[in-house]
Predict the structure.
Amino acid sequence: MKIEIFLFTLIVVIGFGAFTIRLDGAKKDTQHSTKELEFNNTTFTEVDTQRLQAKAYGTHGVRDDGVLTIENVRYQTDSIKSLLANHGTYKGAIIYLEGDVVMDDSNGYHYETQQAEYNQESEVLDITAPFVVKGDKKIFKGDTLQYNTKTQEVFSTVVDAILYTQDK
């Protein structure tokens, strides 16, 4: 009877080893998914006790390890009529926008670029790629632009502009 127990134990140990030890020296993949949320065609609304802060819409999004990525993002606030991009990534209070970034502000100006960052706390849009701004029969082109949507101040580099002024 002792030999039967010995053989049974030996078979269990060999079976356990066959499923856990790899002979080729490769480690088993023990990576765990950190995906927290996935959604399609969803609108996010940010509010406080006084008013609507912002709205964001996306056709597909994933929150993974604290970072939210949204495809075909559409964002708006009181001072931003619409902010569109093919791809948006939320990291903390900053939205990184890529691909056909278009913003229409509350003053009627239309901004176009391929890459920008919007800080929700400071309400500043940083355009980090060549851009075009149109509005009020004016056209501005440049390399980078920083637009404070709260104070409506604009800073830009390497500007090429066509301005129309009123005759006095």
